[in-house]
Design a protein that fits this description.
The protein is α+β, with helices and mostly antiparallel strands. 34% of the residues lie in helices and 36% in strands.
Amino acid sequence: MQHARVAVYQVKPGTADEIARRAQAGMLPIFRNQPGFVAYGGVTADVDTVISLSFWQTQEQADAAVQVAASWIKDNLAEMVVSVQNYVGDLAFFSSTGALGS
């Protein structure tokens, strides 16, 4: 069974697109190098909300991703992120056509 990490970031209004760009350029390569990495993506849900989704082989790896992301956010996005809520759990289901990205 795979595990998911979902983070909901409240960000300063108008910064969501920049945060998504930086996460793709900076956080994605870091996650790809972590043990158990499966997939990562982001959603700009509103002008002040960004949602990060990552998928991992084990619960421990998903939990570790919370700390990896927190450190990267502190070093790269602290001036734009107001708050974050993290959720880690078992992936109940997931289906894809394979066209979700690269």
